[in-house]
Amino acid sequence: MKAFIAVAAMSLMLGAPALAEEKRGEKMAPRSPSVLSAEDIQSVAPALARFGSEVLIGDLWQRTELSRRDRSIVTVAILIARNQPAELKHNVEVALDNDVTAAEISEIVTHLAFYSGWPNAMAAVAVTKDIFVARGIGREQLAAASPELLPLNQAVENQRSTTVEQNFGAISPGLVKFTTQPLFLDLWQRPGLKPRDRSLVTVSALIAAGQSAQIGYHLNRAMDNGLTAQEAGEIVAHAAFYAGWPNAFSAVAVVSEVLRARGLAG
Amino acid sequence: MKAFIAVAAMSLMLGAPALAEEKRGEKMAPRSPSVLSAEDIQSVAPALARFGSEVLIGDLWQRTELSRRDRSIVTVAILIARNQPAELKHNVEVALDNDVTAAEISEIVTHLAFYSGWPNAMAAVAVTKDIFVARGIGREQLAAASPELLPLNQAVENQRSTTVEQNFGAISPGLVKFTTQPLFLDLWQRPGLKPRDRSLVTVSALIAAGQSAQIGYHLNRAMDNGLTAQEAGEIVAHAAFYAGWPNAFSAVAVVSEVLRARGLAG
Amino acid sequence: MKAFIAVAAMSLMLGAPALAEEKRGEKMAPRSPSVLSAEDIQSVAPALARFGSEVLIGDLWQRTELSRRDRSIVTVAILIARNQPAELKHNVEVALDNDVTAAEISEIVTHLAFYSGWPNAMAAVAVTKDIFVARGIGREQLAAASPELLPLNQAVENQRSTTVEQNFGAISPGLVKFTTQPLFLDLWQRPGLKPRDRSLVTVSALIAAGQSAQIGYHLNRAMDNGLTAQEAGEIVAHAAFYAGWPNAFSAVAVVSEVLRARGLAG
C-alpha cells in the first residue's frame, strides 16, 4: 500500500505542471529509475519498486549536494564502466534531458574507451547511436575528431611523464608511450569536456570498477579543477546505488584520505 | 569417449526414477550445467562439456558440505553480482526446483540492488519476470513492499552506525544516511530472507565481485546467524566454479582469517 | 578531416596487395577495431573512430614487441574474462585469421571456465559455436575431451599442492581438492595449448579482471615456460586498450616486481 502511495506521489511530483516549471529552471530527475517499467519491477520485487521510486528517484536524485547534470554524468560513466547497456540507454536519454549535450556524451564514451576499455566504449556506441538517430543528432553536433586542444600545463605533464617513465619505462615502453600519446597529450586535452567534468567521469568509472588505488590521483585532479568536497562525498553516495555499496565503501575511504590531505575534513 | 560415457552416466543418474525419489527427499542437482545444451558445449569444447557433467554436476553439486538449496542461493547471488543473465535464467529455474521460494528469489534480487548495484538488479528482474509468468507466480506469492520488519538489535545497530558516522559522516553524509535508512533499518530487517541467508547472499556477491575487503564483516555476521565453518569453506569451493578460481583464492584467505579468529580452524 | 585521411590510409595499408603479402608471412592486424563499423563509431564519437584506426590498429597491432598471434590470444582472453561477447565474436574471427587454431580457441575457452568462471565460458561458447559452424570447423579439429596429458613435473606439483593444503586444507577442503583435480592435474596438463600460451591466457585474464594479487605467480610460470620480458611488458600495453588503463597500471607494478626479481629490469 505504502508503495502505491509513493508511486502515486511520484507521478504527481513529476507530473506535467511541475515538469514544465522544472524545464525552465532545474534539471529533471529521471521519470523512472529504470528502462523497465514499475509494473515489471513490481512483478518480481515489490520492495525494489518501492525503493526505486521512494529512495532512488524520490530522495537521491532530489538531493542538491550534486547537480542533476552531474548525477547524469556520474550515472552514465558508471554504466559504461560496468558495461550495462540496457540501463545505459535509459540514462543517456535522461542525461540528454538534463542538459548533458550530445557532444559531451560523445566525449564521455571516447574518454572511457581508455579508462574502461575499448570494448566497453563499443557497447556504449551501439546503444548511443540509435538514440542520436532518434533525436536527429548528427555529426555536426559532436566534437571533431581532431579539434584544437586545450593548452597544456607543461610543468604538470613533465612531472607526470617523468614519474611514469622512471617507474615503468624499462618494463613496458609501450604502456608509457601510449599513456603520453594519445592519453595525456591528446585525450585529456580535448576541449569537448571541461577538465573538471573529465575528471568526474574518470573518478566515477574508477569507483564503479572498484579500482580504489587510482581514485586518489584523479580525485585530486578533479578538485584542482573545481570539484568541491561536498560533491566528492555525494558522488560516492550516488555510486552506492548504481555500482553497489561495497564499491562505495571502498571509495569513501580514499575520498576521506584525499579530503583530509587537502585540509577539507575534520 | 570418456565424455560420452560420463554424459550417459549423468543422464542415468538424473533419470526419472532417481529424480522422483529425490523430489521426495533431497533437493535436485541441476540436470544440466548451463542454459546451453551439452551438444552446444561439445561443439566448441569437448573437455568443457566433460568438466560440466563430471565435475560441476557430477561432483560439486553432489557434495553435502553445502545443501543444494544453499548452492542455488550462492549461484543465483554470484550470477546477479556478475551480471550474467543467460546463466541466471537457468539457475533461477534450478533454484525454484530446489525449494528456494519465489519470495526468496524476489528478496535476493532486492538485496543485491544494494550490494551489486541497481542495474544488476534490473537485469535480474528482466530475467526473472518471465520465469514467474511462466510458472504462474503472482505478486501474492512475493514479499510485500513494506512488511512488518524483524526486531532490530539496537546495540549492534548503534555500534555500526556510530562507527560509520565517525569515519565518514563528515565525508559523505549521503552515504551514511542511506546506509542507515534504507540499508540497515529497512532492507536488512525485512523478514523475507532469514538473516543467515541474507548474509549468505551478501558474502557470495562479495566473493563474486572480488571485494575481499568486505567479506570479513559479512562472513562474521553470517556465522553469528548460523552459517557453519564447513559451509563457509564450501561456499568458496562453489564460487571457484561460478566466479573463477582467482576470486575463490582471494576469498579463502579472508575466510581463513575469520575462522581462525573465531577459533574454528587449526 | 584528419580522421578521414587516417581511415583512408588504413584501408590502403590493409588493402589487397599488402594483405596478400602479409598472408604469406606475417599475421594480419584486424581490418577493423570492432564488430561495429567505422561509420557507426563516427556517428557517436568521431575521435574514437580516429583512435581506433590510428592508434589501436595503426600502431598497437603493428608493434612487433608481441606477435599478432599472441595479441589475438591476449585479446580473446581479455574479452572472455570481461564477458564481452560482441567484441569477442569479432576477435575470435581475427584470432582464427591470425593462425590461432580452432583447437586452441577451444582450449582457451575451457581454461577460462576455471580462471574467469563457468558462466563466462558459456557466453564464449555461445559466440564461438556459430563461428565454428560458419567455418565448417567440426569436433575432429578440436582437442579431445580426455587426451593423453603432458608429463607432470612432480616436484613443482608437490610444492604447489603442499602449500595450498597447508594454507587452506582445513578451511576449504573442497577448494583444495578441485584445485588439484581437475585444475592442476588435468586442465593445466592438457596438450592443446603450449604451457607458455596457457600461462599467457591466465595472465591476460588476471590483468583484465584486476586480480593483481595473482599475476605474479602466473607471470613467473609464463616466463619459466618461455615468455620474454619484452613480451610481458607489451601484454600490459595491449591490455591497456582492451581492459582499460587502470587495470594496466595495476598490472605493470606487478610485472615490474617480477622482472626485477628475475634480474630482468634495471
> Uncertain runs of chain A with pLDDT below 50, 5 residues or more?
1-25
Query: CATH H-level name of one domain in chain A... which superfamily?
Result: AhpD-like
* Strand proportion of chain A: under 5%
Question: What does the oligomeric state look like here?
Answer: homotrimer
Question: Characteristics of this structure?
Answer:
homotrimer, AhpD-like, disordered N terminus, 4CMD/NDH-1_regulator (chains A, B, C), AhpD-like (chains A, B, C)
Written overview of the protein:
Three copies of one chain form a homotrimer. With 266 residues, chain A is mainly α. Among the domains of chain A are: 62-141, AhpD-like (Up-down Bundle), CATH 1.20.1290; 173-262, AhpD-like (Up-down Bundle), CATH 1.20.1290. Helices cover 68% and strands 0% of the residues of chain A. The first copy, chain A, contains 14 helices and no strands. Chains in contact: A-B, A-C, B-C. Chains A and C meet through helix 7, helix 8 and helix 10 of A and helix 3, helix 4, helix 13 and helix 14 of C.
